[in-house]
Amino acid sequence: KYMTSAEIRQAFLDYFNQQGHEIVASSSLIPGNDATLLFTNAGMVQFKDVFLGEDKRSYSRATSSQRCVRAGGKHNDLENVGYTARHHTFFEMMGNFSFGDYFKPDAIRFAWVFLTEVMGLPKDKLWITVHHSDAEAERIWKEDIGVDPERFSKLDEDNFWSMGDTGPCGPCTEIFFDHGEEIFGGPPGSPDEDGDRYIEIWNVVFMQYNRTADGQMTPLPRPSVDTGMGLERIAAVMQNVHSNYEIDLFQSLLKAAAIAVQTQDMDSKSLRVIADHIRSCSFLIVDGVTPSKEGRGYVLRRIIRRAIRHGNKLGAKGPFFHTLVAALAAEMGEAYPELIKMQDQIERVLLKEEQQFAKTLDHGMGLLTEVINSLEGSIIPGETVFKLYDTYGFPADLTADVAREYELTLDMEGFEQAMQQQRERARAAGGFAVDYNDKLDLSGVTDFIGYDNLEAHADVV
Ligand code: ATP
Ligand code: MG
Ligand code: MG
Ligand code: MG
């Protein structure tokens, strides 16, 4: 039956509360006690120390709907947005947690009962995966739950979950929903699994280990449970649509975006990117991030500029992105009153960034289009990527995003060389020589440095 996103969120929290779980509010997108993580990327982040046995709570079962951003670090979906039906930079992850309380049998049963009884989903639409080593989970699914072996498979790394390169981790079991044969895609583990037909909706993780910086896995003090279900994905299922972008809460955002950039093309990929990005950008600003040249602030700047570029592509005549905050506050302000309280401030931050980037965007796009039009081969030279970055404030991933639309890629090695040369020139010139490495203040964001090392040098506009 049809349920709104808000109703689903409430039903989830209510169900787990009835099963003895404390309802815990979403924590900030900036992990409070964790220097290893760029942004909160899962519901378990605020409970990391509880899993590790370093923090005690008054409860041993909890449930939450956690705001998450996956736009950097180990879980990075920025490149997926607009290309898949299921990925956002910002999304809400609903979860239930056991801190040394129940383990596999209850965790699996809770998830199954919630989906098949509370949500009323047909059992034959649900597909299950477990870690190949997890005979216990396999037995529970097949014998206790009675899942059809046809819709069951054992996988490897997809069924081992980690928060980041270090921290709590363990084998998991995942539940997929079959959106029907008219959609392209194969079941989990098959060659076409990345299509949009079989969509992963829920991950139930059996937290058993802590991975330390040297790669060692030590058992946690008490086996625990951490689960995550994307609100937008289960909403798509409950609302009988095949893409997250067709659910209730995206409708007003897409409409507002279409009006703001004056396009009629409601199905455009760029419009979805904009509707996605206004959520991550607004929520990051709510949680205290501002656009800057490094670290988290640079990730925010990159997302804002990507959104601006997509608006520009659709023909936006001036600053438009900040006008979408109102629609977002109207849509999500009830669940997140901070959005309403901070609406003016979010708009100001975005508008300023739009005005700043407007000065160079057209010229940068002009240069890039020229290069693309006269390009031989399929690789945009590193020199161009560097010039766009250095002179026009184009983060390399933005240039890559444009390139992808022409089925081109970037010479990142050449880009890095050009960057290195500039560093040397600056040093040779003496005086105000900038050592970009010195400026790399990522506040200990270790996994982020590995992935985004290039863009992290940003010193632009
Ligand atoms: P996928 O394989 O689809 O990328 P995942 O395995 O990376 O998902 P998990 O880390 O297991 O995702 O997160 C738990 C749940 O959170 C997923 O089952 C999904 O419902 C939801 N989720 C994960 N990433 C996203 C995203 N980028 N946008 C929306 N929902 C997401
Ligand atoms: Mg993923
Ligand atoms: Mg997955
Ligand atoms: Mg998963």
UniProtKB/TrEMBL annotation:
Protein EC: 6.1.1.7
Cofactors that this protein relies on: Zn(2+)
Family under the similarity heading: Belongs to the class-II aminoacyl-tRNA synthetase family.
Keywords annotated in UniProt: Aminoacyl-tRNA synthetase, ATP-binding, Cytoplasm, Ligase, Metal-binding, Nucleotide-binding, Protein biosynthesis, RNA-binding, tRNA-binding, Zinc
Reactions catalysed, as given in the entry: tRNA(Ala) + L-alanine + ATP = L-alanyl-tRNA(Ala) + AMP + diphosphate
Domain notes: Consists of three domains; the N-terminal catalytic domain, the editing domain and the C-terminal C-Ala domain. The editing domain removes incorrectly charged amino acids, while the C-Ala domain, along with tRNA(Ala), serves as a bridge to cooperatively bring together the editing and aminoacylation centers thus stimulating deacylation of misacylated tRNAs.
Residues in Alanyl-transfer RNA synthetases family profile domain copies: 3-461
Annotated cofactor note: Binds 1 zinc ion per subunit.
Chief localization: cytoplasm
GO cellular component, one term: cytosol
Role, per record: Catalyzes the attachment of alanine to tRNA(Ala) in a two-step reaction: alanine is first activated by ATP to form Ala-AMP and then transferred to the acceptor end of tRNA(Ala). Also edits incorrectly charged Ser-tRNA(Ala) and Gly-tRNA(Ala) via its editing domain.
Superkingdom per UniProt: Bacteria
Any one Gene Ontology molecular-function term assigned to this protein's record: alanine-tRNA ligase activity
Coiled coil: none
Protein name: Alanine--tRNA ligase
Subcellular location: Cytoplasm
Organism for this UniProt entry: Neptunomonas antarctica
Span of the entire protein shown here: 2 to 462 of 866
Enzyme class name: ligase
